[in-house]
Write a structure and sequence with these properties.
284 residues; MetI-like fold; 15 helices; single chain
Length: 284
């Protein structure tokens, strides 16, 4: 029995280890390609990007390591910095807007009773499930009517009013015991003080997990900017990276790796909160 248990544990460890290696391979691919020169890269991936005969290959450790791609990206690519700053502005504004609008909305749905509450919450869930392809035409018409097309606000405004953040925060706010809130009210706290001093601290994990998930979504979104942004100077990194030509594959890999770093850092910071957020949405 003990041998069977140990064998099962070993098999699980090996399986999970293989899954982890497969998952991290694209990151290692980008990292090693960032330090390859153009000649080595063209030899390895020519069957893919140039249609030559044979099979593409790869060296996890570059034969002739070079910093040319990194130096070109960081010192000689003002366009990359422009797109990076656009991504920062769009993502940062969306997250601030969600804190301003989504938190009170989630608190109101979770803690107050009013006519039509269940219907509104059901509508939030439906909107959360709809893909962008379904709402694209209606968003386009509305943004065109208010003359926001081809501006970064055409991407920011729909993101601010994303319903997923409300759904996730709602789960945490609804889990706060009513007795705690009543005790605060009996001590003289008004509704705003109850929200700021009790609701926000106790729902902090839900707020952070929602912000982390929304950061990852907004930082990597490509469909909405592609549909609503026509001028290249307004683009985000997600639109800029595919525009890099195949002749500059090394530069493209370096740019993709650098663009990945903010999302990676945010994910690592909010990993524990994400686990708690997923647990809350599954259990309740």
């Amino acid at each position: 029995m003990r041998i069977t248990r140990c064998a099962g544990k070993l098999c699980k460890t090996v399986f999970l280890g293989l899954c982890a290696i497969i998952t991290i391979c694209p990151l290692l691919f980008l990292l090693s390609g960032s330090f390859m020169d153009s000649l080595e890269l063209s030899e390895l991936i020519a069957p893919v990007i140039q249609g030559k005969e044979g099979m593409a290959g790869w060296h996890w450790i570059p034969r002739y390591p070079t910093l040319q791609n990194i130096i070109e990206l960081l010192l000689d690519s003002p366009e990359f910095y422009k797109m990076f700053w656009n991504s920062v502005k769009i993502t940062g504004t969306i997250l601030i807007g969600q804190l301003v609008f989504a938190m009170p909305s989630a608190w109101g749905l979770a803690r107050y009773e009013f006519p039509g509450k269940k219907q509104i919450y059901f509508l939030y869930i439906i909107l959360m499930m709809l893909p962008f392809q379904v709402t694209m035409l209606s968003e386009y018409l509305v943004l065109d009517k208010i003359q926001l097309l081809n501006s970064q606000w055409s991407v920011i405004l729909p993101g601010i009013f994303s319903t997923f953040s409300v759904f996730l925060m709602y789960r945490f706010f609804a889990g706060i015991p009513e007795e705690v809130l009543e005790a605060a009210r009996m001590d003289g706290a008004n509704e705003w003080q109850v929200f700021c001093h009790i609701g926000v601290p106790l729902g902090y994990a839900g707020i952070i997990s929602a912000m982390v998930l929304q950061f990852l979504e907004c930082w990597n979104q490509i469909e909405r900017p592609m549909a609503f942004l026509k001028q290249k100077e307004l683009w985000s990194l997600a639109l800029y990276l595919p525009e890099i030509s195949t002749e500059k594959a090394g530069f493209a890999m370096a740019a993709a790796f650098v663009a990945l770093l903010p999302a990676l850092f945010v994910f690592l910071y909010g990993q524990d909160y994400l686990e708690r957020g997923i647990t809350a949405t599954v259990q309740k």
